[in-house]
Specification:
By secondary structure, the chain is α+β, with helices and mostly antiparallel strands. The chain is built from 6 helices and 7 strands.
């Protein structure tokens, strides 16, 4: 419901700019119908969100209990990491995937300085491909971050120059896990026998 204020016997609806609009002007118009529709759908979305959040917590608890039990049977204290478990017929599965958000600390800039120094020192010119890969790896995205995969890709380049090797060591040492996130996927076999994910993304349904 829109924000409504009462002044004496009159009611006013507040628009997006905070202006007061008399309720009599809005009642019975498409503005009122639209407001009711939007508020109804947002309320239902919040209810669904709560249901899904609670279901996710339930799944986390049930999966943790099962996997910890399996781990204890093998002499371990607890289960660690992701996995996929199947039903008896191998026609349905539940997967746990753990994604790590990787970042680099300030030593990445030191690595960049060493690479720049190496490129500048090559009087005969550096390999254009390497220069291009370096520029791409150190390019910042709209969040001001480098692409992790592009950066790690630099370490695959074969170069025995001491400056390059020092830079690669700095890149390796500067890697940090900023956060981890656990994802749950339910799958079932379709008519072709392929395992397909049961999507819980409202927009994809």
């Amino acid at each position: 419901m829109a924000d409504i204020i009462k002044e004496g016997k009159k009611k006013y609806w507040l628009n997006g700019e905070g202006d007061k609009v008399p309720e009599d002007v809005i009642k019975g118009t498409h503005h009122q119908t639209r407001d009711q529709l939007v508020c109804k759908m947002v309320s239902e979305a919040k209810q669904l969100q709560t249901i899904i959040r609670n279901k996710k917590r339930q799944w986390e608890r049930e999966l943790r209990e099962y996997l910890d039990k399996i781990a204890k049977q093998e002499g371990l204290e607890e289960w660690v990491g992701g996995t996929t478990i199947f039903n008896f017929s191998m026609s349905e599965s539940v997967s746990i995937k753990i994604a790590k958000k990787m970042i680099f600390d300030e030593r990445l800039q030191l690595a960049k300085q060493k690479i720049d120094a190496l490129i500048a020192s090559r009087s005969d010119g550096s390999d254009p491909l390497i220069v291009s890969l370096v520029e791409r790896a150190f390019k910042l995205d709209n969040k001001g971050e480098v692409d992790y995969k592009q950066m790690i890709g630099l370490r695959q380049i074969q170069c025995d120059d001491p400056l390059w090797l020092e830079a690669m060591d700095l890149i390796a040492d500067s890697q940090k896990v900023q956060s981890t996130k656990t994802y749950y996927y339910c799958q079932e076999k379709d008519e072709t026998g392929k395992m397909v994910t049961i999507t819980l993304d409202f927009a994809a349904l």
